[in-house]
Amino acid sequence: xxxxxxxxxxxxxxxxxxxxxxxxxxxxxxxxxxxxxxxxxxxxxxxxxxxxxxxxxxxxxxxxxxxxxxxxxxxxxxxxxxxxxxxxxxxx
Length: 92
Known about the structure:
Blueprint: H1 2-20, H2 25-43, H3 45-60, H4 68-88
Helix pairs in contact: 1-2
């Protein structure tokens, strides 16, 4: 969250500075995105890495089935896949 807020603050600051210098709306937007990306990536690598790990954990979660039938189906599918992998010699 800190990394996103920091990048957004850098984006707004770079955009406002570009607009104040009279660069133009489109070029100010492009410059602001480039500056905020570069500065945050180069000067805040720990925050960048932590944000990436948090993003990965958020998407890596798989929803758990809530009812008994879905759980049984999932267990049967897992057992079938495991058995087929063992038969083919490709154990996990």
